[in-house]
């Protein structure tokens, strides 16, 4: 999953980036509203963390622009602890949730996970397909109750496909959502990761839809 952080305070921005990358997210950052608006409008993200008190263009204006442009990416706004008016204004402008500063990293990550799950139609923190389970809270993957060790990129790819279970996901979409902006994106690596996941979880866990991409579905419903 790929996340954009729009925050002008360097220490907090770097802390958030390190925390989210440690939790398995691909992360891009912007330090002002103008840059943040551009990146949110032109890049594909699964969620955006947006500070409201930004230079150049304030966070509420950025959020309002995204929504008017038809961007439906889940947005988590950062507000001052006692500013109830900012919370109301952010939600009215189209934010999906908020966290008040200062906050615990665990709370922010939990809220971010929930936003991403809801956006893809998943209510539970555990993503399931047949006997395969991925716990988004712990980052653990099991098959028939037995733990399966995945690399960071294998986990990101499996997580994205499970979040979009039953849908055909193109190779381009996978690249956009599991790598950050600065990563050397090679589409051939996607097939390598898919092959590795099949070896660990079973040859039929991911179906290749020739010319379109990949699909992960319940075993009884899989087309191949």
- Largest sheet, described in full? 5 strands, parallel
The share of residues in extended strands comes to 15-25%
Annotation field: number of helices? 8
Output the radius of gyration: 18 Å
The N- to C-terminal Cα distance equals: 26 Å
Report the uncertain regions.
Answer: none
Order of helices and strands: EHEHEHEHEHEEEEHEHHEE
Q: Tell the overall outline.
A: globular
Explain how this protein is built:
Keywords: DNA-binding, Phosphoprotein, Transcription, Transcription regulation, Two-component regulatory system. With 224 residues, the protein is of the alpha/beta class. Helix content is 41%, strand content 22%. The protein has 8 helices and 12 strands. A hairpin with a 2-residue loop joins strand 6 and strand 7. The longest helix is centred in the middle third of the chain and has 15 residues.
